[in-house]
Amino acid sequence: MEHGKHVATEVPAALTIEECWQLVNTAERTQLHCMMLENCNYDFFEMATLNMAQKGLFGEIVHGEGAYIHDLRDGYLFNEENGYWNMWRLKHLAKEDGNTYPTHGLGPICHIMNIHRGDKLNYLVSVSSDQFGLTAYAQEKFGKDSDYAKANYAKGDMSTTIIKTQKGKTMMIQHNVTSPRPYSRIHMVSGTKGFAQKWPRKGLAFEPDAHRYLSDEDMEKLLTEYEHPITKEVGAKAREVGGHGGMDFIMDYRLIYCLRNGLPLDQDVYDAAEWSAIIELSRISAKNQGMPVVVPDFTRGAWDKLNTITYYTE
After folding, report:
1. Which residue from 23, 182, 15, 191 is spatially nearest to 109, judged by alpha carbons?
2. Sign of dihedral through CA atoms 181, 131, 38, 53?
3. Cα–Cα distance for residue pair 102/175, rounded to 1 Å
4. Which of 96, 107, 221, 303 is 20 to 30 A distant from 134 in Cα terms?
5. CA–CA dist 108, 157 (Å, integer)
6. Which residues contact 43 (CB under 8 A, 6 or more apart)?
């Protein structure tokens, strides 16, 4: 941005509140785009539930849940040869508690709940379990006398963060990369008329019989009927090209489309800052026995200037 360029950055966009403000201040001063490449906003089910929410199928959305639950112990954390560069992620977990990677679960929920487009995050509370998984795994794989087994890891196995919004809605965001569990981003939406969830069981439920999931056949009919216009347009090509099932392609397509056509980006610098800020805020809350922590208003009061998230097409 300092060199006159629009910016697209990996997730998270920043690790501290100070860095988040640096991004916002620079984007405002230079009047350039700064988009965090949160690809999970562009997955097919997430896009369909966004469309359903905007069409009112869930009624007033009251609560949402997201997560990054991904067992990384064998393939990445302790893999010096083929894991993360310079073992950075394991070193990070040795130093930092809280939700160290919140945006995959948080991003789609924030857009569905119109954060910065009529609502804002007010405060959060965060609690972490103690650390068990890394030590137990290291002892079993490398031996009790290994450096890995003797290391002190600050990161608790399960981080759970509850967020309250200005309009009285709530979110739950979880992080766990050290337990033997199936992959999950949860992606759950709960409203006054209906419910959707992607993991562990993909399903939809609506009044007047919301006690039961729709049949798989009825669910697929609805997902087809309410497929987001953007995935309708480029979904086939996205699945062909791939990239996390196609969502990377859709994300890149949208970034280029909006820049070429002079449109607001689907995700802006305020999204990048606020979603990334959960890292430090959750750590502060967890360190202080789950005390509430205020979420900064990176929009400086402009969070209600728009009424809903819009993925502009013209």
Report:
1. 191
2. positive
3. 7
4. 107
5. 24
6. 108, 244, 245, 247
CA proximity to 272, closest of 4, 51, 10: 10
Residue 136 is predicted with a pLDDT of 98
How far is it, in rounded angstroms, from Cα 74 to Cα 29? 44
Q: Which amino acid is at 57?
A: L
* Nearest-angstrom CA–CA distance, 175 and 247: 21
What strands, in cross-sheet order, belong to the sheet with 159-165? 203-206, 194-197, 188-191, 61-69, 170-176, 159-165, 121-128, 293-294
Six token digits for residue 208: 């007047």
Cα separation, 202 vs 210, in Å, equals 15
Place of tokens 């019989």: 209
| Domains in the chain: ranges and CATH | 39-247+274-294 (3.30.360.10)
pLDDT tens figures, 157-170: 999 999 999 999 99
Tokens of 251: 């994300």
- 255-301 pLDDT per residue, tens: 999 999 999 999 999 999 999 999 999 999 999 999 999 999 999 99
Q: Which helix (H) or strand (E) holds 69?
A: strand 61-69
Question: The pTM is what?
Answer: 0.96
Q: What is the pLDDT of residue 194?
A: 98
Number of Cα atoms under 13 Å in the Cβ half of residue 20:
23
Would you call the peptide bond into 12 cis, given omega within 30 degrees of 0 as the criterion? yes
276 vs 20: CA distance, rounded Å: 7
pLDDT tier for residue 143 given thresholds of 50, 70 and 90 = very high
pLDDT over 90 (residue 71): yes
